[in-house]
Amino acid sequence: MALPAPPPLGAKALPDGTYDGQVVAVTGGGTGLGKGMAVEFARLGAKIAVLSRKPEHLEAGLAALHAVGAEAIAVACDVRDPEAIARAFDEIEARLGPVDVLINNAAGNFPAPAEEMTPNGFRTVVDIVLNGTYNCSREFAVRRLAAGMPGAILNIGATYSWTGGPGTSHSAAAKAGVTNLTQSLAVEWAPDGIRVNCLAPGRFPHEDMPGHMTRHREGETGDNTVPGLRVGELRELGWMATFICSPYASYLSGHTVVLDGANWLRRSLVMPEFVPIREQFGKRAVESGSAKAAIAKTRGDAG
By CB count within 10 A, which of 109, 138, 192, 251 is most buried? Predict the structure, then answer.
């Protein structure tokens, strides 16, 4: 027994046309979680702007959106650069119209022991995840406030921002900032009709998942390491995102919704032996071919 499987692919969590006429911008929307969310907004009538630094990600995102009949555009943008963000919003407005909903999904992460991480590696993740979320949110709000229009922002958080975790000092710090930023901006902008929420996903396999998740990427959903005994499916993440940003959640703001099958809350009477991060990471790096290269590599998609 496990948590029940979700409705089939193509099912919708909200009425048809919920987002008719609305423009949804998704940073990092060309792959993985961002693409999954973008597709569900498109199914409900939204016009989609996919933002990314990488041409191949823009192409992948557009292909997925066109496959469901969406009106969509791709916009090259680095979320670390406020001027690039302003130009991206200008382009979206010219081609689709003003952005009604912003999904701050762009992220960068690479597991590494804190003492072996370079200052630049730490700074890069914080710049993409935290500063990028702020930069895009600010640009969105400036335009909505000037127009006297409401709007919705959905940030992407992580449960390890509350618990910490080995190998995640840079990402956990950045995601903790995103959680607090969500709360602060929600209070500031609520009087002007702008809602700001955060979604913390659990295990949702996709094409960018690490190699040890291959079996899930290939369609296997069972997972006895989480209380729900299965992983999430991308459409479930999309359904939650579309609900949070919809009129049906118009009184919801400043909240972080966890969607992980109760995984982050689990406790055990029998505690497994703790394995230090250097041993965990060394084993995984050896399996992938190069421990030093894996630790030293600084990577991430800034949108």
Answer: 109
- Give yes or no: 160 in active site: yes
Q: 10 Å Cβ neighbour count for 28?
A: 33
Whether 292 shows a pLDDT value over 60: the answer reads: no
According to the model, what pLDDT value does residue 76 have? 97
Give me the pLDDT at residue 272, please: 74
Read off the pTM.
0.88
- Please give the angle made by the CA atoms of 20, 21 and 25, to the nearest 5 degrees: 100
3-state DSSP call for residue 22?
coil
Among 19, 160, 248, 251, which one carries the catalytic annotation? Answer: 160
Produce one character per residue of 33-44: b if its CB has 16 or more CB atoms within 10 Å, e if not.
bbbbbbbbbbbb
Q: Do 178 and 135 meet the contact criterion of CB atoms below 8 Å apart?
A: no
